[in-house]
Amino acid sequence: GAPRLTDELRAQGYQFNVKTVAASLRRQGLRAKASRRFRPVSYRKHGLPVSENLLKQDFYASGPNQKWVDDITYLRTGEGWLYLAVVIDLWSRSVIGWSMSSRMTAQLACDALQMALWRRKCPENVIVHTDRGGQYCSTDYQSLLKR
């Protein structure tokens, strides 16, 4: 809109105020494209079965491959949103699996978990803690956990 355009013009050395820029945009019939607000889906809304919280907020591990946490974050780029799924071992606090995609899907979460399982040679009895979003409650992700 006009405020952002005014800032850009000032950075290029032009001296216009916001009202002048807004009036010019109106005369030309130009309007700013409003970006859509990102709204993540809460786990209560996806309708899939939700697993019990086994960690109970105890994010300390006494050894490797006991407790892993998995989450997805979104990154804004010049070409839109990218989603990054990571798996972290709570003992070392290091990323052991990750995946990136332009869409937040169950496959994104599965790819990150598969990388972690491959890198850690499929350890047994690992507690995998997630935010219980739809990607983590999907049948694909749940079947991957059971292997």
UniProtKB/TrEMBL annotation:
InterPro entries: Integrase_cat-core (IPR001584), RNaseH-like_sf (IPR012337), RNaseH_sf (IPR036397), Transpos_IS3 (IPR048020), Transposase_IS3/IS150/IS904 (IPR050900). One of its GO terms (molecular function) is DNA binding. GO terms for biological process: DNA integration. Residues 60-147 form the Integrase catalytic domain. Pfam families: rve. Involved in the transposition of the insertion sequence IS3. Belongs to the transposase IS3/IS150/IS904 family. PANTHER family: TRANSPOSASE INSF FOR INSERTION SEQUENCE IS3B (PTHR46889:SF6), TRANSPOSASE INSF FOR INSERTION SEQUENCE IS3B-RELATED (PTHR46889). This is IS3 family transposase. It comes from Salmonella enterica subsp. enterica serovar Agona.
